[in-house]
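Hello Y.,

Per our agreement to keep a running log of every chain we model this quarter, I'm adding this entry. I've kept the format consistent with earlier entries: sequence first, then predicted structure.
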Amino acid sequence: MIRVLIADDQALVRAGLATLLGGEPDVEVVGLASDGEEAIALARDLRPDVVCMDIRMPARDGISATRELCGPGVEDPVPVLVLTTFDLDEYVFGALEAGASGFLLKDAEPQVMIDAVRSVAAGNGTIDQGLTRRVLREFAARRSLQPVTAERASELLTPRELDIMLLLARGMSNEEIASELVVEVATVKSHLARMMPKLGVRSRLQAVVWAYQNKVVVVPE
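Predicted structure for the entry above:
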């Protein structure tokens, strides 16, 4: 069962998300928060599998709350799926840098929202498909390199891990990667589990962002 906490300052949105997600047989909505401070307190108390976090909230915004729950240096992070009405790059960049495992626009189709929660809970991460290419290109261009550079990555990662990184950056699922490399899905998962700690990332999404940011792969025009 995927345990979800919903944080949004609009009661109608909270209720709508709770109804949508709570109607799934594998999802349980364990808490509702109306601002960032309440979201942090409830997340630490309830330890949900996913926090659906709005960005613009009173008292404390969603990005700040996200950083508190899963940002760099947090020893026991809680996965966060950031939701917003606004298609603004700075919101996306801020959410990713704060440690979010996913970013989705609120006008996404209901099934996309449900799949995103499942993806984040599984440690895969997600980002709105309409934003992916533009966001990653801008992220790579505007953000400085992280401590582990592309050159260092070739030393840290095995050739097979680098192969998987390139396919991951193309948006392939574990099943698609396994088919491309003619290996078992379990083998792909094992490589990912070993690879992500080497890069200092916690999800597939963050691994892809890292790859583009460090020029391991290049966003196509």
